[in-house]
Structures are given as C-alpha cells and as structure tokens.
Write a structure and sequence with these properties.
By secondary structure, this protein is of the alpha/beta class. It has one domain (2-293): Arginase, Chain A (3-Layer(aba) Sandwich), CATH 3.40.800. Helix content is 39%, strand content 11%. Strands 1-6-5-2-3-4 form a 6-stranded parallel beta sheet, with helices on both faces. Strand 2 (143-147), helix 7 and strand 3 (166-173) form a beta-alpha-beta unit. The mean pLDDT is 94.
Length: 295
C-alpha cells in the first residue's frame, strides 16, 4: 500500500527504487544462530501444500521451537522469503551508505526490532536492523539507532548492549505489562556499552506537543555527546493515534517531525519501517515520511 501511494504521488520520480537482494544464510548468521535460521527455513513453507504443512507441524512440535509458531510469531507461507527480503533490503541500504552511493536509504519492509539471536518475537523473525548495523560498522565507528515504534526496540538493544560503537535510543510505551515489558529507564547498557543504551519509557496517550518536545530535546543531546557517523531510524507507525495495538495520541505530523529532525543533521541515514496495525494509517505515514525525506 505504501509503495502504491508513493507511485500515485509521483515520488518515485525524485529517487531511485531498487529491488533488494535476498539475504543469504551466512548474512543472517552475522547476528543470528545458524541452528535458529535453519529451523526457521525448515518450518516456513514457500507454498501451501499438505506435505509442507505436515513438515512444518512436525518441526514446530519438536522440543525446541525458538518461539516460532507462538501466537505473535505464526508460521505462514512465504514467511522465510519475507525475512530474506527485509534483511536483504537493510543490508543493501547499509552497503549504499557505506560507499556514499546515497545520503538516505529507506526500507519500509525492514525495522523488525524484536527478533533475538535465537528467538522470534513480536511478529519479527530475523532482525534486519542488527544485520544492517553490523554492515555499517565495517565503515563507520559510531552508529546511532533511534526507535519511535510504540514498543521497545529490545532485540536491537540486546544485540549491542555491551558495545559503545552503537548507541540505542528507544521511545516506547512502558508499564502495565505492555509488550515486550522491557525498556526501563534504568537499563543503560553494561561493560563498554554502559550509558550507550538509552530508554525513554512513556505513559499512554502522549500527545503531539509532548512527544515532539521529548524527542527533540533528547536526540539533540544524544547527537551532541555521541557524535555519530551514521543514523538508523526505526519508524514503527504503531505509535500513531488510532493504532489497534498502540496507545499514543500522536498524529502523522509528530511522527514525521522525528524524520525531519534526524534528516536535518545531514548524516548518512537509514530509515526503516516496523510496527503498525491500522494499515491505512501506516501507508499514509510512511508515504508522508518518504516525501519529507525527498523535500
């Protein structure tokens, strides 16, 4: 839907659109455990068929299922291909930024921030963000990761919790058992990564003015102190008012203001999708933010 809206507004004439490569097993295993990725590949059939379904059920019922097949990580045909494409897109974006072939790269299919090293979580099977950041670290000393999804970016934070080469900043609803239950103000990283994880836990119903004020004051200070070489911005649209799973009271204007501010820094930037469960609002938001990126 986002792609069709981008085309309808003629935005494609202002940028280059690429088909991403499909991430290989080796590329996914830059972060994920090989046994986990192989299990995911086995359990996710490419097409509907009796045999594929039986094989999938047999694998799912094995002792270790890596949380695949749970209520929030169901198995469906094409699931593994989707993970390959989303991850390939974020890695391609990182490669283009590394070689200065673009100033800003957008992968709305990416932003799957909950996937862990050996576990699926929250509709996320492969963590394209972590794979993309690992690629960026080949050419950049410091990567700043900013997450405005209504849910805490737990998979990305966990991956880089002990390093100072990636700073993670997450703005998210927190408390009352809200998924995933992590992202406390006191979670600040450890070892060399101490003070390089920053969590901004929010109460429900935060409005535009409050969100823009909190976001701008915090990320400007982070940029000033951390001095990143490159920025990765996860734009989960479940932080919009009216989302079926979200609890913010924010509009597309405030969501887009985050993109506008980060873009104004003039740093190489990767923009990613993420959550969003009122689909028409997600498509509107990401099309608007594509337009902001293109001025």
């Amino acid at each position: 839907m986002t792609h069709q809206l981008v085309l309808a507004y003629g935005l494609h004439k202002k940028m280059n659109i690429y088909e991403p490569h499909r991430a290989s097993l080796n590329e996914m295993c830059l972060f994920h455990a090989e046994d986990y990725i192989k299990h995911l590949q086995r359990v996710c059939p490419s097409v509907y068929s009796e045999l594929a379904r039986d094989n999938a059920n047999e694998t799912l019922n094995s002792k270790r299922n890596y949380s695949i097949g749970d209520s929030d990580c169901p198995v469906f045909p094409g699931c593994f291909e989707l993970a390959e494409i989303a991850t390939g897109g974020s890695m391609d974006a990182a490669i283009m930024l590394n070689h200065k072939l673009a100033d800003v790269c957008i992968n709305w299919a990416g932003g799957l921030h909950h996937a862990k090293k050996s576990e699926a979580s929250g509709f996320c099977y492969v963590n394209d963000i972590v794979c993309g950041i690992i690629e960026l670290l080949k050419y950049h000393n410091r990567v700043l990761y900013i997450d405005v999804d209504v849910h805490h970016g737990d998979g990305v934070e966990e991956a880089f919790y002990t390093t100072n080469r990636v700073m993670t900043v997450s703005f998210h609803r927190f408390g009352d058992g809200f998924f995933p239950g992590t992202g406390d103000l006191l979670d600040i990283g450890c070892g060399e990564g101490k003070f390089f994880s920053l969590n901004v836990p929010l109460k429900p119903y935060i409005n535009d003015a409050q969100f823009m004020d909190v976001f701008s004051s915090i990320v400007e200070k982070v940029r000033e102190h951390y001095r990143p070489d490159v920025v990765v911005l996860q734009c989960g649209a479940d932080s919009l008012a009216g989302d079926r799973l979200g609890t913010h009271n924010t509009s597309i204007k405030a969501h887009g203001a985050c993109v506008r501010l980060v873009k104004s820094w003039g740093l190489p930037t990767m923009i990613l999708g993420g959550g969003g469960y009122t689909v028409k609002n997600v498509a509107r938001c990401w099309t608007y933010e594509t337009a902001l990126t293109l001025n």
